[in-house]
Amino acid sequence: MSSDLAALGVTPTPLALLLLGRDRDLASERGVECPGDLPVASDPDLVARAQRARAALGDRAFVLGHHYQRDEVIGFADVTGDSFKLAQQAAARPEAEFVVFCGVHFMAESADILTAAHQQVVLPDLAAGCSMADMAALRQVEDAWSALEAAGLAGGTVPVAYMNSSAAIKSFTGRNGGTICTSSNADRSLRWAFERGERVLFLPDQHLGRNTAVLQLGIGLDECVVWDPHKPHGGLTVEQLRDAKMVLWRGHCSVHGRFSADNVRDVRERVPGVNVLVHPECRHEVVTAADSVGSTEHIIRTLEAAPAGSSWAVGTELNLVSRLAQQHPDKQIVFLDKTVCYCSTMNRIDLPHLVWALESLVEGRVPNRIVVDDDTAHWARVALERMLALPGDGTTVPAQR
Ligand code: 13P
Ligand code: SF4
Q1: Is 68 annotated as a binding residue?
Q2: Which of 3, 276, 355, 385 is the residue whose CA sits 20 to 30 A from 112?
Q3: Proximal ligand: closest to the CA of 254
Q4: What binding details are noted for the cofactor (predicted)?
């Protein structure tokens, strides 16, 4: 620790980011290197190879694709969706031996937890992690819970973990009476939690927690505090914890966290009459400046229903925004930021990795299998099933300005 940091009482987290997915760090959501020989990206036969391998596997494989995946990958998905829909769909084909998850590591872990024991989940590149999920390590969350226990507050606190968290964090949540949420159902998960306690520990995305609590449950901004795992006692006093309704973990999405209120102002000047549509992982000042906020499924449905000739600036991952712009040439759809903003870990799943994974399965090898140990899986499943049992159709009525 540098002496400056030590003087501030700040303990650095062990560095979770592994350059280009090299090396091995099982505590990290970023995963490990991809073994075996990858086809070269310039191979002109890649699409045909993927088609041949997919056809050879037939019903033995079920391919899931998150909306942020590249075009060349999403074209091979049997089902596309946001993280809620993909969690629901994971168990939808019990006859499939292999679930090939084109998304990131925490999604593949959830699929392993929700599928039957004979089904094997494959992540085509183990380096497809999530920087947000990495921001909450189990040891840090257990320290926060111990602080709440020591303050006599844990009994009235219900943990709610965003889907974008490791299986270990989901398991902690299940063990301690909490539930999981996605950006499609965060309001219903929070209402469920407030029926069981007076305070929520929300992990790991402070923005989704704050935006949902304030805009959909009417909780005051001053009733939300941020637990910083790098500061002693989270940087909070016992009184601040006791008075809070939402204890927000200090985590964020490195993609959605880039959008700013200036981006919203700029696009309103550049594009007359533009509607600003953003994901709830964006910062509060962005969401409150926007016209509509919701999950990726909400963003897709809103643009499908929009009248021809309307203009939209969309604040979410760029693969999805570019695809939507191509699918709706009758509408003007622009990216909210002026600079390029892909999710670099979602982009790790490319055609060479998909071809390599599918061909390995055809040849009888199961590459990059994601397995969650039984104890972790048990409590994570408890938390996930609480979420899947929430009333409603899996979609949130989004906040509209
Ligand atoms: P949704 O799929 O729930 O909209 O979440 C977006 C995201 O960041 C996934 O990693
Ligand atoms: Fe994680 Fe953000 Fe990428 Fe989603 S978009 S996988 S939350 S870094």
Answers
A1: no
A2: 355
A3: 2
A4: Binds 1 [4Fe-4S] cluster per subunit.
